[in-house]
Each structure stands twice: as structure tokens, then as C-alpha cells.
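Extended Data, panel c. Modelled sequence:
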Amino acid sequence: MTKQFVLTHVAENISKLENDKTMYGNPVTILNIPWKIGYCRVDNAFQIYLFREKSETDCCIENILELSHMYQAQNALRICEEYLTKDSNHSMKLKVRLAAKYKLDKLKKHVIESMKTKADVRSVMGPDLKELDASILEELLEKMTSF
């Protein structure tokens, strides 16, 4: 599912903007994610930046991943992967699903390595194996045989 949004901003005091200085607009929340626009003048060229405020939480990480993937924002994807690896309370099953969908290899590796029992592996596999990516299913079956 692709989510699109339009962000509008009125840049004020543009004539006062000095070369190599950045000004920021007020944050606005779209899709449960806080965004901020920055603009600057560099060698008489006007540049506009879209910043995502730090907002990695379990409630909005999927929205951030979706937008990061849609706009090919590799740094944002990396930050999300790091959050899911270190701070998230999401289930292993959801983390594996997100790792497969957004090709987050470090997250996938972390989750599989953190499985300590056959029950952990079964909880990720779930009742319908068709839902799993073939490469992940193969790794889960290998993990299952390691116990």
C-alpha cells in the first residue's frame, strides 16, 4: 500500500536569508510522523529540504518505513532498522515480516540469531507458511534444525 501526502509551506523572510544559512519552518505531523521543512540559499540557488523529526516508535515505525521505501531514503531506512534491532518491542514475527518487505538484512539476521528455542521459530513461522518469504522460511527451517 502506497501512502502519499502533500506538504505545503509558506517561506517567510526569504529576502533576509543569508548565503549558506538554513531557516526552518514549524513542524507538521503527517501520517503520525513529524516533518519540518528547511530552506537555504547556496551560491544564489534556493534549496528546500524535508526533515523527519526523530519519531521512531513502535506505533509509527511502519509508516516511516513505508515513506522511506517510497522515497528511497536509505538513511531513514537504516535508522528504522537500527531502532527495530535495538529498541522496538514489536514481536519477532512482525520484525521478520518488516525485514522481508523492506529488505532489512541486519534486522533479519538479528531476529533469527536472537531465537533461542523451537517455540521462538514457530512463533515467527505462524500457521500459514505461504505468508513467509522463501529465503526467510529457509533460514527459519535451518534455525529450527540447530536446536
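Helices lie at 61-70, 74-86, 92-102, 105-114, 118-125, 134-145. This feature is highlighted in the accompanying rendering.
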